[in-house]
Amino acid sequence: MPESPRLPPPHTARTAARFRRSDTARLEAFSDGVFAVAATILVLEIQDPAHHKGGLARALLEQWPSYVGYLASFAYVAVIWLNHHQAFARIRSVDRGLQGANLLLLFTTAALAFPTGVLSDALQESAHGADARTAVLTYALVAAAMCASWLLLYTYLRHHPSLLDPAVEASYVRHGQLRSAAGVAAYTLAGLLGWLATPPVALAVFAALPIFYFATSEGLPRHPRT
């Protein structure tokens, strides 16, 4: 008689499933390192300006867009880190899909240094010129991609609620999706307005959105039912 196929020990499937998930400690440590580097390299866009003897003060003042860009983007990376901390305080385990979504988020966050430098250089030449329009559109597209990566992460969590702590607020993930989608729309619209109308309009949106994300880092306000 042919031998019947050997079945794997009953604990094998459970062991394999356990290895597909892990706690969040290693992911959070790696993410914190990326956020720290992303915030640090922003200051490299501020350089000792070329100047003639006795003209250092004027040269320093003329590169004010670099200071504004550093302040705005550093604040934004800090707010991203805060939102990331709030999210992973509610996540109890990670799988490969969530790790991939988190890597995409880190990728887009680290990329913010590039459009920040482009925008600072363009504004030093002119706040209304063609280069400034291109720069605000570039910044808006990168920032919108970063918000889209947040949307992907929250959407993944919504379809995999077992990764969340059971005590998580029922509305938290849905609010995260709404906030992320609003960011994609706001940055895209701001970039188009800056490109088609005037760059300062986009700059105002760029300054306002980090404040919005800081204020809503634990979710959108909930109104009590009457």
Overview of the molecule:
The chain has 226 residues and is mainly alpha-helical. Helix 2 runs parallel beside helix 5, helix 4 packs parallel to helix 9 and helix 7 packs parallel to helix 9. The mean pLDDT is 85.
Which features would summarize this protein structure in a list?
226 residues, elongated, mainly alpha
Inertia-based shape:
elongated
Helix/sheet category: mainly alpha
Gyration radius from CA atoms, angstroms: 22 Å
- Largest sheet properties: none
Question: For the residues shown, what is the average pLDDT?
Answer: 85
Which percent band covers the strand fraction?
under 5%
User: Uncertain segments of ≥5 residues (pLDDT<50)?
Assistant: none
Percent range for helical residues? over 70%
Report how far the terminal alpha carbons are from each other: 74 Å
**Number of helical regions:** 9
Count of extended strands? 0
Give the H and E element order.
Answer: HHHHHHHHH
SSE layout:
Layout: H1 10-19, H2 25-41, H3 56-62, H4 64-88, H5 96-110, H6 113-125, H7 130-159, H8 172-196, H9 199-215
What's the short version?
With 226 residues, the protein is mainly α.
